[in-house]
């Protein structure tokens, strides 16, 4: 493909202003993205994939910092459930993040300094508006599908509500139409952990090359527990001790689950910006699709003719199946076509990121049904 | 009562050595405790109440730092379910804590300095051994009952396993016979939050009068979420905003659940020592009563002739009902008399601390049955 807009490691500066739910605007917004597969001449085979809180545009390409495969390489690629032999897949880094799209670590053109905490608080809908501007840039009027898990599912739900004409089908996996008090509480713990770290310096840590890693690691550890099921943790770790085989009667990591969690915290800070963590968790906590539509979730879907596919996992206690059911009820009330399946998995919320043959079949079948 | 050993605000220095599961010993161990009611001439009406992680000996008396009523004032007192008109109730601060019993904040007699992290890692059984030495001091050979919720329930379970001759009945509320991987994980997040705070200074913060309050507050916030049910949080807070009625598009506490959690964290650091939090959570994580008895929980109960009463709450996801069922199965296998009830409550794990008429009736009836 000669069109330089398509391919891996692409970046665009959006023309004009991005209008934000908080009342302000952002100008010169950069969006980092990648595409896989060829856009059909009629543009009808475009699929937008929306990423979760700490993920990025590398849905199907090696992550430049970790060297790991794309976060959904089992789902996206030639011959995969989201088949890039027949589709053009687009995945962009959300605004507020730290993998190339404009976020709190970006330079504020008006000051020449990083935004830090002067970056505006953004919403899930703001992320979606930026994605729509990216599609304008790519010349894609209408998506065959928007697909996302977790926070990606929130964006996927927001798409038909915000741009009802621009999306023909919606896949929402392990997600919710609003953050509950418990969801907010866990995020608030994480934010407080970051902000309690003296190295956070009110968000102005960029010039010091010494970010609030300890606080961000604690935030990640707390969040990580919510991504796994109690049964999955028990199956994987139980009360198994580290290799030295006996309790140390100290505060080193005695139990395998402790060293696993510490590793999760430490490896996260190498790839993620603390302020981005604050802003994106805030966007998720603010998310309440019903509230944006007069308090009735069904209203969010009345303007759209899209088909919907909802998937939940039985051991996901972060966004349990009941949250997907709420969405399905609202879709039914709005007269939308909706298929819904609860899959069985021991892996809790994180199941959607793993190679799950049943999930793959559901997504593949749903996309084929819309052909 | 003229006997100065009995009453409120009592303290004793235990004679001799306290032998610890970790292999070491502690000498000159101080135990802060209180008693309510008169000990019968035959000593047969003594009830030991064991407290939870952040509680203390003030089961039925005003807390000296917070000015709040005793933490179980609804359960313990004249005419209450644990009736101090007819019983002598003893409640002591566990070793490792910070309300008067020897813990990491106490002076190490061998150095004249606070123990800090040179304090030995202790276990639930060590706490129970110290309680037995307190009973020796009080001249109480055998308890009519040992009663505890949460970590207090762990001690209550450990009593008949450690001193089978010294306890005639056991009440275990909202507790477990072992910490799961998820329980350990949440505690590890809390410990990492404390130790990530630069003011922790490797535990040597006592001389600076500037404790690691921020880290401890984050630890408390994370733990507090596990004490409440998702449904309870939703009922109490839902997505309700603070008084200003609209989202602030900033990082102040917008949602009521956020300010509630922040308050929980901040008020906790005024009354609790960070190192004590490390040591007591460690003791709970190490707790596995089966492991102490050849890997078979029933073995823990074979030497005892005590009657058991187990109570769980249906919305407690920290120590869910299944954990109580495990204990009851082991008691049955050991041929012990055990009654068990799961109570319905919207309040999650914390239900045992609240005035719960059904719980009160169960405890009162069980204690009367043993008269």
Question: Summed up, what is this model?
Answer:
Chains A, B: Keywords: Acyltransferase, Amino-acid biosynthesis, Cytoplasm, Methionine biosynthesis, Transferase. Chain A is built from 9 helices and 14 strands.
Stated plainly, the CATH topology of the largest domain in chain A is called Rossmann fold
Indicate the overall shape of chain A. Answer: globular
Question: What is the average of the pLDDT values of chain A?
Answer: 96
* Structural category of chain A: alpha/beta
Write out the CATH superfamily name of the largest domain in chain A.
Alpha/Beta hydrolase fold, catalytic domain
Could you state the order of secondary-structure elements of chain A as H and E?
EEEEEEEEEEHEHEHHHHHEHEH
Span from first to last CA of chain A?
24 Å
Instruction: Tell me the CATH architecture of the largest domain in chain A.
Output: 3-Layer(aba) Sandwich
Total DSSP E strands of chain A: 14
Helix fraction of chain A, binned, reads: 25-40%
Radius of gyration of chain A: 20 Å
**Domains of chain A (count):** 2
The quaternary organization reads as homodimer
């Amino acid at each position: 493909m000669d069109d330089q807009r398509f391919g891996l490691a692409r970046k665009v500066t959006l023309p004009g202003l991005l209008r934000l739910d908080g009342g302000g605007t952002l100008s010169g917004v950069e969006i980092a993205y990648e595409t896989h597969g060829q856009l059909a001449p009629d543009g009808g085979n475009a699929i937008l994939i929306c990423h979760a809180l700490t993920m990025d545009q590398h849905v199907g390409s090696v992550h430049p910092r970790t060297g790991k495969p794309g976060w959904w390489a089992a789902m996206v690629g030639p011959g995969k459930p989201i088949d890039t032999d027949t589709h053009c897949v687009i995945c962009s880094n959300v605004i507020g993040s730290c993998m190339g799209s404009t976020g709190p670590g970006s330079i504020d053109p008006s000051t020449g300094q990083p935004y830090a905490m002067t970056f505006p608080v953004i919403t899930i809908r703001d992320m979606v508006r930026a994605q729509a501007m990216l599609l304008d840039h790519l010349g894609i009027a209408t998506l065959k599908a928007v697909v996302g898990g977790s926070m990606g599912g929130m964006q996927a739900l927001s798409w038909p509500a915000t741009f009802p004409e621009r999306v023909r089908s919606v896949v929402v996996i392990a997600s919710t139409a609003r953050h509950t008090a418990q969801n907010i509480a866990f995020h608030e713990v994480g934010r407080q952990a970051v902000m309690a770290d003296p190295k956070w310096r009110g968000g102005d840590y960029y010039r010091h090359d010494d970010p609030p890693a300890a606080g961000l690691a604690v935030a990640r550890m707390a969040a990580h527990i919510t991504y796994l099921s109690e049964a999955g943790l028990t199956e994987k770790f139980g009360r198994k001790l580290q290799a030295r085989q006996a309790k140390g009667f100290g505060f080193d990591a005695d139990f395998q689950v402790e060293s696993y969690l510490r590793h999760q915290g430490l490896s996260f800070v190498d790839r993620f910006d603390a302020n981005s963590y604050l802003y994106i968790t805030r966007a998720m906590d603010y998310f309440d699709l019903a509230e944006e539509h007069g308090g009735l979730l069904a209203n969010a879907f009345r303007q759209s003719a899209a088909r919907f596919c909802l998937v939940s996992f039985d051991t996901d206690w972060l966004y349990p199946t009941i949250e997907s059911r709420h969405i399905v009820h609202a879709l039914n009330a709005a007269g939308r076509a909706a298929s819904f399946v609860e899959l069985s998995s021991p892996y809790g919320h994180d199941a959607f990121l793993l190679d799950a043959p049943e999930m793959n079949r559901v997504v593949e079948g749903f996309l084929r049904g819309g052909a």
